Amino acid sequence: MRKAFTMAAIIASLIISTPALSNTEIALLKQQLDTLKKNYEQRIEALESRLIETEKRTQYIELKTQEAAVKPKQSSFLTQNSFNPAISLILDGRFADMGNDPDDYALPGFMLGGESGLGSQGFAVGESELVMSANIDNTFYGKATLGFHNDDGSTEVDLEEAYIQTLGLGNGLTIKAGRFFSAMGYLNEHHVHTWDFADAPLIYRGLFGDQLRDDGIQLSYIAPTDTFLQLGAEIMSGSQFPSAGEQNGIGAATVFANIGGDIGIEHSWQLGLSHWQANNIEGRTGGGHAHGEEDSAEETPSFDGDSKINAVDFVYKWAPNGNPKNQHVKVQFEYFDRKENGTISMLNSGPPLEETNFDGHQKGWYAQTIYQFKPRWRAGLRYDQLESDNTGFDDDVLMEAGLDSDGFKPKRMSAMIEWLPSEFSRIRLQFNRDKSYQESDDQIFLQYTTSLGSHGAHQY
């Protein structure tokens, strides 16, 4: 800057003292001034870019560690904790139009459970949530989530989450204990209202009954590296689908690893690997909500044995100048592979009881792309595909249990467009060309989602 002032003073003095200064010399001086100006502008732009990149990386790490930004001081704990929860209410409603009867839905080669199925025709309350969370003190953070959803015309209330999590444990370690969504895969930890489509990927529907959650403990570690690296493990009770272990024992376990980072200020990526395993499963019954009410005379498939699932996921994001508010692209991919060994029984059959040995192999994947083309508008495409190779000595039992796919590969294509008036509301229109069971189905969903009250940042 001092050079610029000096140069300006020289030019001024020359103009005053030397009226006869040639045009060539004046042009040369102006050129030198322009060069100095451009150099300083380039330096300022470089500093601004570095600042944006640093802020983006900081936000990325903060979201992954899930730690609150402000921690109460221990000395003032009693005063601040008198009533400190952040309370939010997620309201979700939808209209669904389907060509086939949703009560007849089945996924060939997979035993449905949990909350899997197509839901109800017409108007219905979607997955609404009441969330309470807060720093309990300078050591723990707590969160509880109540879920409200429609089931055959009636509203069910479910305790989806209830856990505590350590704050500032140090050395990159975090411990979570209670009921929570497993870190298996990428989408599983994300709440339904943050999904990019109105329904779960087919592979999540077939393996987890839409989502995998359980009671247990999770340990995660974030390495002190420039590239984001997270390692973790979970020990679960195994009381929730797709396991069915003892309530007082350890029925399931998960290990996972995530690595990711930024490429400049406009690109970011994350790659994940995970493994879930449940041994000595007893009495895992099929029949999700789509099959209606069960009665004592209805034959119900039940699985006893061991189950293992391996998964890989990848996410890529792009935002011009690192700012996703106006425009961004998100590409998401997940692949799951499950192997099971045990016995399939048809409860309430016989006598004698209908059963067969079972050697199951089920796998599937989905890929989706979301494009925000305007500040308040997003559009997306998704493709799902599954396949299975299940064997047993009694094919009739496998057929009754819905586990004999007869070579059929379920698939589905989805397209959606949504309008976001603000960060607290969304209107979505979605179309599915569903070929996941023998009769193809055209499905239309019109959905609204709103957020009331304080709501924390979403995960990457």
Secondary-structure topology with pairs:
Elements: H1 2-17, H2 23-65, H3 77-80, E1 86-98, E2 122-125, E3 128-135, E4 140-151, E5 154-166, E6 173-181, H4 202-208, E7 213-222, E8 228-236, E9 252-263, E10 267-285, E11 300-318, E12 328-347, E13 354-374, E14 377-388, H5 395-400, E15 411-422, E16 425-435, E17 441-453
Antiparallel strand pairs: 1-2, 1-3, 1-17, 3-4, 4-5, 5-6, 6-7, 7-8, 8-9, 9-10, 10-11, 11-12, 12-13, 13-14, 14-15, 15-16, 16-17
Helix pairs in contact: 1-2
Give a written overview of the molecule.
- It is a single chain.
- It is elongated, with a radius of gyration of 28 Å.
- The protein has helices at residues 2-17, 23-65, 77-80, 202-208, 395-400; strands at 86-98, 122-125, 128-135, 140-151, 154-166, 173-181, 213-222, 228-236, 252-263, 267-285, 300-318, 328-347, 354-374, 377-388, 411-422, 425-435, 441-453.
- It is an alpha+beta fold and 460 residues long.
- Helices cover 17% and strands 47% of the residues.
- It folds into 2 domains: 1-65; 84-453, Porin, CATH 2.40.160.10.
- A 16-stranded antiparallel barrel has the order 1-3-4-5-6-7-8-9-10-11-12-13-14-15-16-17.
- Helix 1 packs antiparallel against helix 2.
- Residues 280-306 are annotated as: Disordered.
- Residues 26-57 form a coiled coil.
- Keywords: Coiled coil, Signal.
- This is Zinc-regulated TonB-dependent outer membrane receptor.
- Residues 1-22 form the signal peptide.
